[in-house]
Amino acid sequence: MAYLTTNNANAVRRWWGGGAVLVALLALAGCASGPTHPSLADAQLPEMIPVRDFVTSRQATGGYQVSPDGQRIAWFGVDGVVPAIWVRSIDGSDAKAFRIRARTIRFSADSRWLAISDDPTGDENTRIHVGLVNGPDTGLRELMPAQKSVVHLVDGVEGSSDFIVTSNQRDKKVFDLYRVNPAGGAPVLLATNPGNVNWWGVDPTGQLRARAQIKGDQVLLERPGAEPGSWQVVAQRSRWDTLNIFGLHDEGRKAWALSNRGRDKLALVRLDLATGAEELFYASPDVDLDNVTLSRRTREPLVAYSMPGYPARQVFDAALAARLAALAGDQPVDVRVISADQSDRVLTVSVATVRGARTYLLRDGREPQFLGESRLSVIAHALVPSEPITYTARDGLPIHGYLTLPVGVQQPRALPLVLLVHGGPWARDRWGEGTMRQFLANRGYAVLQVNYRGSSGYGRAHMEKARGEFAGRMHDDLVDGVRWAVERGVADPGRVAIYGASYGGYSALVGATFTPEVFACAVGIVGVTDIARLLEAAPPYWELGLPWWHRYVGDPAVPADRARMDAKSPLYRAADAQKPILIMHGVNDVRVKLEQSEWMVAALRKAGKEVDYVTFQGDGHGNQRWPNNLTMYRKTEDFLARCLGGRTSGFDYYQLGAWAF
């Protein structure tokens, strides 16, 4: 089958000019196929959504931000067919577009400038560009230009256009603190990193009030001393505790934090930056808190969010609680305040389900105003529900996750199943938008997502149980999930695929090489294949985080640790693979470098194993460019159709023009 990848774009350019276009279209269009798995033979599956609708949309928008003065709004969208950030007056028709593929956006505190972060080549050298909010000018200038460096936006400075940023341009291992004016001029260095600071505490006025310094197994919370450049220790904690500090207030004497110091679950606490003492404000008995929305006006908490199964929220303002409840209705839904003006009277709110997200503008005395919807929401009519599940691992540990079933199957029994493994591993699967989950269900598959031990969100103990358990009990949790689905009658034990990216890609290759009897095939994307060499080739700015990896998987400089790491690495088990494998990787990946997949593909081919290999130009650890996602989804559906017996849409005509993007 002819297939458009980054490697044959030149051929497509030649097709444009003549009758070969029609010939190619006819040849490729024949690749669509219906399901072949017995459980799907008589199913009335919903319409097959084209791959292009899962990876790009001219109608979809999101990330709506209201300016601090409440007069303007900015959002993610497209300008023609080009990714763009739009901005307009809140009730006006004066919208203009900054053409850029953005990661984040933020207004300056005086609402005059928009800061836009991007990673143009996927190599994680994040840049920040700024543009004027008012007027017709759509030009952007780079805030802190420096080759091969990373810049992160911290906050705006109250009463000015300035931004606080961190940058590793001086020392690639650590981040210094700067204040920058978007109109131009040299950045002002606020603090030089001595080599071990992993957090800077800046208040709304731009004053540096605190920092966290790592020393061995301890983290020191410090405040500026009496002498310029000096620091005094306020408190210390174990570096294995989590203390995420935000929302400095009371002239820098207080802050908010999500903390698990002295407890299992992350809770919202008020932190005294003079003593380090914590005052518990709110906690969920079941899971970690995810995040918190603070009032722009008072700096007090408005909403705390968590996800025990379906999303949960605790609203601390009665009037706001009523307004959010009205948007939620009586169905499971994730309602989140995305932004607010400085009076808290103008809000943007996202209302998300597994079928996509819709964003609304809330203003006092007015009905909610619909602003836009996500890519999945545009095709919501063909999408399916997802339900939280719980089962018990073989050692008795409760494991949580999500099960998604295709619709139109009379009896959802013995279905082909995809075990969709999240990355991290210190992350988690969530109820809500999930593009790959919906894509797979639309093709006829049951989809199982497992928050194995080591996943975040379920407390310290759940995470700690992953120490030393790569390719061990972490993988057992996944296999136990498959067995649960088989015993429940949902899954056909002979037609189970394992699919994942990053750590999930590692898991997929572990499944293919350590437990090949469980899985009919495996798809690994930007996956780790050699753990020791992953850490040896880590980006410089991982330096302060490497001890965390050493704690969980080992230090490659220690011979005994390295031997254990090699024993848990799929690269050295390539000869044990038995089933087809699909490996995909972004060539600019700096976390899990391309060589990790190159080694694995070479080892599999040397052992005579079946492996398909795809690379993505212009992307890194996860695709930003829709043409690469188009390729990834198309390769996935064709591969799984052969392996599991679901359906595939075949050639998507967007493939012909993808080279231009």
Uncertain parts: 1-30
In whole angstroms, the N-to-C terminal distance is: 23 Å
How are the strands of the largest sheet arranged?
28-29-31-30-32-33-34-35
Alpha-beta classification:
alpha+beta
Largest sheet properties:
8 strands, mixed
Q: What is the count of β-strands?
A: 35
Please count the helical segments: 15
Quote the average pLDDT: 93
Helical content band: 10-25%
The whole-angstrom Rg is: 25 Å
Beta-strand residue fraction: 25-35%
Inertia-based shape: globular
Question: What structural keywords apply?
Answer:
661 residues, alpha+beta, 4-stranded antiparallel sheet, 15 helices, 20% helix, 33% strand, globular, disordered N terminus
